[in-house]
Amino acid sequence: MITNLHQISSYIVTNSTFYLKSYEHRNKIYTLISDKHGETTYANKPLKIIRSTCRLHGSSFEASKYQAKQFFGKSKHKLPIMVAYDFGDPCILFPLFSPHSPQNIWISLHAIANITGSESGSETILTFIDGSEKSFPLHIKSFNHQYVRASMYYKYLILKRSKTL
After folding, report:
1. Residue 23 CA to chain centroid, in angstroms?
2. Chain segment 19-35, per-residue pLDDT in tens
3. Are the C-beta atoms of 93 and 107 separated by less than 8 Å?
4. How far is CA 60 from CA 67, 119, 128, in A?
5. What pTM did the predictor assign?
6. How far from each other are the two terminal CA atoms of the chain, in whole angstroms?
7. Residue ranges of the domains in the chain?
8. Distance from C-alpha of 31 to C-alpha of 19, rounded to nearest angstrom
9. pLDDT at 121 > cutoff 90
10. Residue from 135, 141, 54 nearest 99 by CA
11. Which band of pLDDT confidence, cut at 50, 70 and 90, is reported for residue 140?
12. What DSSP line would sit under 76-137, residue for residue?
């Protein structure tokens, strides 16, 4: 377990969330949560947090995936999802790996201020809106592909919402 971090019993994703990173400790999957308040841990998988957030806002993870597939195409994988509207602004998360993988990391689109690659190119370094930096184990080209998808989806949701108001 990651030491010296407060453990919480529930968490709701908002646009203040930076990322949800799963990790294993004693054969159990935990989530390292990073947001504008710092880091904390949750004694379950990131998908449980995402499912709970979707449910709280009257939807489901499955409905969020379905909506993304309607936009990107049914054969696409590792799609961004909207977990909520945070004060009218879509709260978009995107997975770096398979959503069901124990190594997956969910990144919040709104938290990213800058994206750079490591010198080797095998990692992506994100600068978050609070100025903090974090390195993620994904080639920058792969990360940029996921980031562009999330940005396109965000724009689509904003335009779709403005047409219905």
Report:
1. 15
2. 999 999 889 999 999 99
3. yes
4. 11, 39, 27
5. 0.93
6. 46
7. 7-164
8. 10
9. no
10. 54
11. very high
12. --S--EEEEEETTEEEEEEESS-TT-TT-EEEEGGGEEEEEE-TTSSSEEEEETTS-EEEES
